[in-house]
Amino acid sequence: MANDEQSLREIVAQLEAAWNKGDSVTWTSFFAEDADFVHILGGHFTGQVAIEAGHRTIFDTIYKGSTLKLEVEKIRFAGDTVAIVFTFSTLLVTQPGLPPKLNARPTLIAQRQNGQWKIVAFQNTLVTPEGAPAGQNPLVDRHPIKGQGQAAGH
């Protein structure tokens, strides 16, 4: 399992590097051909072609020049061929009019396919800051638990 954990950590590091280069092709190469990807606002892409096109679009527009930091918080194996990788991301955005910093919790589900790990599902959830400004989002205003920098229970 130690080698598997290291391989999964390397995938996360390579995803970070691909993002920081604005390289949607390399970013997508870590995904299974039929992978599912739910982005930070809830949009759902299915398959490498759609995932690559979506990332090419954001790398060329709202996230152009952005810098991503991905930190692995926990890896949970669900058998010999499936792993769930919990990460915390910090995205520094350079485009005017957007928040300069976004935090999210991407969760990757990876499956061993033909001897290598491939991401089969990716769910990205925006972290709302503690004490988020009132009046900007009714759900954030009324939800009793705000986003946190660390997983509860740690």
User: Do you know the CATH topology?
Assistant: Nuclear Transport Factor 2, Chain: A
**Largest beta sheet, briefly?**
6 strands, mixed
Distinct helical segment count: 4
Q: Which spans of ≥5 residues are poorly predicted at pLDDT below 50?
A: none
Task: Give a quick precis of the structure.
The protein is an alpha+beta fold and 154 residues long. It has helices spanning 2-20, 24-28, 48-60, 138-142, and strands at residues 31-38, 44-46, 67-77, 82-92, 101-113, 116-126. It starts with a helix and ends in a 12-residue tail after the last helix.
Describe what this molecule looks like in 3D.
The chain is α+β, with helices and mostly antiparallel strands and 154 residues long. It has a single domain (2-127), classed as Nuclear Transport Factor 2, Chain: A (Roll), CATH 3.10.450.50. It has 4 helices and 6 strands; from the N terminus they run ααββαββββα. A 6-stranded mixed sheet has the order 2-1-6-5-4-3. The longest helix is centred in the N-terminal third of the chain and has 19 residues, at 2-20. It is globular and about 45 Å long. The two termini are 22 Å apart. The mean pLDDT is 89.
Keywords:
Nuclear Transport Factor 2, Chain: A; six-stranded mixed β-sheet; globular; 154 residues; alpha+beta; 27% helix
How do the strands and helices of this protein lay out in sequence?
Elements: H1 2-20, H2 24-28, E1 31-38, E2 44-46, H3 48-60, E3 67-77, E4 82-92, E5 101-113, E6 116-126, H4 138-142
Parallel strand pairs: 1-6
Antiparallel strand pairs: 1-2, 3-4, 4-5, 5-6
